[in-house]
Specification:
The protein has 199 residues and is an alpha/beta fold. It has one domain: Rossmann fold (3-Layer(aba) Sandwich), CATH 3.40.50. The chain has 6 helices and 6 strands; from the N terminus they run βαββαβααβαβα. Strands 2-3-1-4-5-6 form a 6-stranded mixed sheet, with helices on both faces. Helix 5 links the parallel strand 5 and strand 6. The longest helix is centred in the C-terminal third of the chain and has 36 residues. It holds the Pfam family Ras. GO terms for molecular function: GTP binding; GTPase activity. Keywords: GTP-binding, Nucleotide-binding.
């Protein structure tokens, strides 16, 4: 890891095609909205630096295609991810329902069974600048069902909550990372004591 950064994290953007995943990244990186954004083919990559408590963190962000024909390609990039934005379109109820499939695909790639560690997931409802047709109750039901820690409405067009999604994710990543380091430290300490006792 580059000594300039306290830590680096691999992040995925996942969801149906045309929900605005790439547009959110353009807004985040360049603070612009591109109305002519084309569908991602396979996979795309960008990165973002953030600071917290005078420490620098780098997010490596993998923008995945939402089309069915690219799923076998994009799933290969799920491995070793620390977190994922699950993105749906607030004007398209089907894109919310499909989040369950995307979530299942992600967890299957990690062989998550409810006990092992899993990537942090944030649910992102994009296109909040348009008239919403997704029911808020359906969103809350999904958040509760999948035990998603944070849900945000965003707009790649206006920039609403786009920075918040990255800042909120970083806070969760740092907290989770500190917990894992503390656990590993305790585990190593216990292993060391056990080893000495057995000699």
């Amino acid at each position: 890891m580059n000594n300039e950064y306290s830590d680096t994290f691999k992040i995925l953007t996942i969801g149906d095609t045309c929900v605005g995943k790439t547009s959110l990244l353009y807004r985040s990186q360049e603070n612009i909205f591109r109305a002519d954004t084309k569908n991602t083919i396979g996979i795309d990559f960008t990165q973002r630096d953030l600071e917290r408590n005078y420490k620098k963190y780098k997010l490596y962000i993998w923008d995945t295609a939402g089309q069915e024909r690219f799923k076998s390609v994009t799933r290969a990039y799920y491995r070793d991810a620390h977190a994922a934005f699950l993105v749906f379109d607030l004007t398209n109820p089907e894109s919310l329902q499909n989040i369950r499939t995307w979530y299942k695909d992600l967890m299957n790639k990690f062989n998550y069974n409810g006990n092992s560690s899993k990537p942090i997931v944030l649910l992102i409802g994009n296109k909040s600048d348009l008239t919403k047709t997704v029911k808020h109750s359906d969103i809350i039901e999904l958040v509760d069902e999948l035990k998603i820690p944070i849900y945000l409405n965003t707009s790649a067009k206006t920039g609403e909550h786009v920075d918040d999604m990255f800042e909120s994710l970083l806070d969760l990543l740092i907290t989770n990372n500190n917990i894992n380091k503390a656990y590993n430290s305790i585990h190593l300490s216990r292993s060391s004591k056990t080893s000495r006792c057995c000699k």
